[in-house]
Amino acid sequence: MTTTYQVGILTISDRGASGQYEDRSGPLIARYLQEKTPWQISKQTIVPDEFPTIAHTLKQWCDEGIHLILTTGGTGFAPRDITPEATRSIIERETPGIAEALRAESLKITRHAMLSRGIAGIRGHTLIINLPGSPKAVKENLDILLPVLPHALDLLNESPGSESQHRTV
């Protein structure tokens, strides 16, 4: 049985939030997940690179029961790139393996992957993953993530049989 999880997509972009720039990464994430998973996109919005706004939105979505939040943007070196810091302020447990895997695999494609500061973590029963802002990088990261996300969400939400893959005979 496949579980239908609720997904939130949060684009972090000053220009996108002000209407000066068309968000391409958020819609790409939505299309990708709609094509490849049974999950429902429950929340999708664009916010500016403002620490309190990012943290409040993430916390609110977690508290509303969203199972997976994918952020896009704000993970680089620019002074206003604060998505990892805002994310870290509201998570309860960091999941470094996810961010490490995304960077390691992305480095095989571009050296610029080492400039990504994205993190991943858990708040309650919600998994939050910071993705880059570039649509190309978002697609590459989703290709890396998708094979493990169903199992990660099943474990996090204690779905029946989710730990069966971990038992030894």
Protein described:
- The structure is a single chain.
- The protein is α/β, with parallel strands linked by helices.
- The protein has one domain: MoaB/Mog-like domain (Molybdenum Cofactor Biosythetic Enzyme, Chain A).
- It contains seven helices and six strands; from the N terminus they run βααβαβαβαββαα.
- It has a six-stranded mixed sheet, sandwiched between helices.
- Helix 3 packs across helix 4 and helix 5 packs across helix 6.
- The longest helix is centred in the middle third of the chain and has 13 residues.
- The chain is globular.
- The two termini are 23 Å apart.
Cα distance, first to last residue?
A: 23 Å
Low-pLDDT regions: none
> Helical percent range?
40-55%
Structural class: alpha/beta
C-alpha geometry: globular
Say how many strands there are: 6
Compute the number of structural domains.
1
| Superfamily (CATH H level) name | MoaB/Mog-like domain
Name given to the CATH architecture = 3-Layer(aba) Sandwich
Main sheet attributes: strand count, strand direction, barrel closure: 6 strands, mixed
| Mean of residue pLDDT values | 94
What labels would you give this structure?
19% strand, 7 helices, alpha/beta, six-stranded mixed sheet, 169 residues, Molybdenum Cofactor Biosythetic Enzyme, Chain A
